[in-house]
Amino acid sequence: MKLVLATRNLGKVKELTTMFNTDKEHRNIQILSLQDFPDAPEVVEDRDTYQENAAKKAMVIAEWTGHRTLADDAGLEVDALDGAPGVHSKRWAGEDATDAVRIQKLLEAIEGATNRNARFVAAIAIAEPNNSKDVKVVVGKCEGHITHTPSGENGFGYDPIFVPNGYEKTFAELGETIKNRISHRGEALRLALELL
Question: 73 catalytic, yes or no?
Answer without folding.
Answer: yes
